[in-house]
Records
---
Amino acid sequence: MSQENPISKQPLIRHVNRQQMSWRAVDVEHLISEDHPARAISTLVGRLNLSAFYQAIESSTEEGGRPAIDPQLLISLWVYAYSQGIGSAREVARRCEYDPAFQWLTGCEEVNYHTLADFRVEKAQEFDELFTQVLAALSQEGLITLEQVMQDGTKIKAQASSRTYCQEETIREHLERARRRVAEMGDPRNEESSPKAKQAQVRARRQQQERLESALEELQKWQARKSGEKAKKGTRVSTSDPQARAMHQPDGGLALSYNEQISTDAAQGLIVRVAVTQEPNDSGQLLAAVDRLEQRLEKKPQQLVADSGYTTRENIEKMAGREIDFLGTMRYENVPRGANLPNRFSAERISLSAREEPLCLPAGQSPASGGTTQEESWGDLPPLRSPAGGLPSLS
């Protein structure tokens, strides 16, 4: 083809038609591979004792009724969702529409998010026992040893605005106003055009009144823990989430939050216990974490590792009393040299014996002569010893 006489051609393209409807055959069993985690989770759940989940089902083959969704399926859905970092019932329901793993678990059947949410809330106690069975199975397989447990806490922000954080006087004012509005809703002179809309408004007002009453009750409990009229008067709680507490955040600010305590077995990185507390500080949660582990797994950890938030003199002594090795970091504080900090071991509690085992420097060097040596008594702790050819260390 010459440049003087070009020949133009219109390309023939098959365009995408997204407006069409289509039917498709789906082989549910082959939606996921044979080694997919969803299969393992379904098999594991099927081997657990789920009798407690079936006792509340009212329909039966003898009396009839609408068949209930198999609790084994709902449990498998939640366990697999948790393994993927999904904790929302709505999100789980959405995944059941397109995610192959969720479709395989449900057999491509629809599961309403209300069913998923209600099941998780109403069966909280049964779920706790179920996870105990799971941990026991993992421990039997050697995946949980408790030889070393990592303990840490994280602040979870509550779904509550700072504007709802009120004192007692403000809460009582809101509560009185809510009670008047609920009473006015029952006045026959205030008829609404739609009975359904009126019922919805009455329900919303009553729920608001119940939240305010719960907030006032929680505030009074919180006041009882404080001393002094000034401190009691300054106590505040959230009217939308009374259980939340004001806690310091990693960015240095304050926010209504909960303190979640997580215990993880270091062998396989498996979380073995989770607890949510209202206490803003981690220092008082170490012994409670050990108690929870002993209660669930019927044995105590051999070694516990935590950060400076847990490292206090009281925790060190109590962990030693329970014969548990505790590894914790000390918080760096800018204080004058030689000053003693509260709840810390003073220098007099540690001994350095220069006569029994002289300090050894690297490469076999000896300390410089000319100085005086003395033995200082540091209580019942052993003297500071140095390993062969190394730097001094506590034995």
Note: The beta strands are 149-157, 165-167, 236-238, 245-248, 254-265, 270-277, 303-306, 325-328.
---
Amino acid sequence: MTRLILVTAILVLLAILSSCARGGGAETPRNEEEIPTVAVVKATRADLSSALVLTAEFEPFQEIDVMAKVSGYIKQIKVDIGDRVHEGQLLATLEIPEMQDDLTRAAAAIDEATAELATARDELQRAQSAHDMAHLSYSRILDVSKREPGLVPQQEVDEAHSRDLVAEAQVSSAKSRITAEEQRIRVSQAEQGRFKTLFQYAVITAPFNGVVTKRYANSGSLIQAGTTSQSQAMPVVRLSENGLLRLALPVPESAVSSIHLGESVEVSVSTLHRSFSGRVARFSDKVDQSTRTMKTEVDVPNPALILIPGMYAKVDLVTEQRKNVLAVPVEAVEGSGNTARVFMVQTSGAIQIIPVVLGIENARQIEIRSGGLKEGDRVVVGSRAGLKDGNKVQAKVISSGG
């Protein structure tokens, strides 16, 4: 019995020793498995720029309702919705019978004044001849009276002088009448010119190149003069200049200083899956007090009329640009502001946590302004859970784009 107990104890001891031996032999592989593998990228030099993304709606460069200057009936309308027209092209013609009568009356008034002018000139010629005769007679009688005193009665001398003065007054009257008739002709010609000018407004033309976006009137429609009452006057068509479009962007106050006239911008239209080039053409140069934004307009050429007013577009406004700066992927930075830091893997495989000062960033990279990081240093991207300063890791270099 004692021997049985001794054998049993020996077997139990051997089993314990065997178990300990197996546990000690597996210690090294388990430690090797505990060293984590982390993805790293190298810090590189790059040109970075930060952009402000704004959304706006395309507007025509200019859009007007084409009105008639004079009242009349539409005799003929040449265009319809969607028609492309050029500057000066005929849109419609008006029928204004009473204006033709006004032109005829003005021409008759000129003819009448011209005839009266001719009569006045004839009268001037007659008056001038009568004055010459009266003046000659007076001069002769006066000369005889002076050479032979008492030969010619004084009354006859006075009568001759009176006839001379009357004839002279008739000459002056005839000259005045000529001046009046000439003035009358000028007035009649001005009136005729006014009617001709108004009659030209019976032909309605396009003031600029554009597209007809609405048609208000048809043949036979009565059109009121656009200058009398805007509430009653009906336009003929609406014309929109779509060859050049506007984008009105509300730029935040913080980005106002980075807006420059003539700057090129990229305009993306999601519905067309295309991008177009635009240019900062104008801005209000004043921040709106209610929205704290400044209205900025971007002009987008649209010669093929692919873009339609009313479409939404996204504009990338470059607010800052820096060249050849030290940059790392955005995923490599933990925290922001004063708490920003990166996890660098040293050549020995140890983790070194480095506080950094950040600069500008784009969708993929961010600038490292200072903090001890150098070009070529490896930084951890992705998850950094559980990593501490001094931890050993296995670094797996991936491309910065991956």
Note: The helical segments are 2-25, 27-33, 97-147, 154-200.
---
Amino acid sequence: MLIALTSLSLAAPAQAQSNTVILSTTTSTQDSGLLDALVPLFEKKTGLTVKTISVGTGQALALAARGEADVALVHAPSLERKCVEEGKMRNRRLVMYNDFVIIGPEDDPAKIKGTPKAVDALKRVAETQSRFVSRGDKSGTHVFEQGLWKQAGIEPTGTWYIESGQGMGQTLGIANDRRAYTITDRGTWLAFQKRISLPILVEKDKPLLNIYSVMEINPANGPRVNVAGGKAFADFMVAPETQILIRTFGVDKFGQPLFVPIAGKTDADFR
């Protein structure tokens, strides 16, 4: 799918892109089902067609930096700010958040259940060399996980540390099969409840906050960037009516929302 969409963006003349918006986004927005709810509304409202490329945040930002996307919806604040500083992206706006959680087998071999600090939980996983599945794909989740290991003073290596190189949904499946620990965003974990049996063991530590932003693409990145379409989608994500839909998304199915809308807020509000 990625190859096909990339080829489309390279082969189509600029005029043909006027009614198509290429959204470069993370696997969690797709796997959680949020885009399935929002994209049709955007298309109906604007008459534009959205082509979604769902990859890790690192790849999503790289595509946008090459001018192969029109708008980015991602969740790695440090990488996002860097892209804005470099002039690759612009008008970064916060959209929503959920949180990361550490899940694992019910027998909990590393005994991390209820540990208040995520960093301490990872230390126990490493000390006991309990199986841990990392996305290993330079996604927002992977970048976040690497930051926690660094805070713990640990460079995870060995047979117990498994890199999936896959999206969040696939990584959850691998962790479930291997009866291993992993880090996931809560929204994807909720969406996959019928497919996995790994409970949440560590949650609600402040550093586990998972913030999503939308950014427009600098047209200087490539000749086929649909500036108007990208802006239209970015504006749609922070519009009041969309934020209301985000606030209620998942409640009917999971008994709780998968995301919390935060349009209008800044990074400083979450420090």
Note: The longest helix spans residues 34-46.
---
Amino acid sequence: MVKVEAVVIRERVETVIDAVEQSTGHVGVTVIEAIGHGRQRGVTHEYRGRIFESRFLPKSLLVFVVTDEQADPVVAAIVDSARSGNESGDGIVWTSPVEHVTHNRTGLKLEEVEVGA
């Protein structure tokens, strides 16, 4: 099993989830609202003649737990759909290995549930 995590701009969350579902059939996702910045280091706003700097920007963290075979297609779908056309700030995606994934309700391992589906 692989955990795929992606930080994306909030406006792209639904687009990314739809793209992952369409390309892989995977529908399980956790969405966590977050703030942060990358290389762009935030943005500067002008309001009523005063300049304000927002160091942290609103983002969303998407977490998918998928089979090893689904990991690369999920990453590709995220990368393609998260791209906004802006110069920077579209986010980042990474993977990590996962062990012992068990459904709380049934007590079954995720691998057993995926095979039976």
Note: Residues 48 and 54 are 16 Å apart (CA to CA).
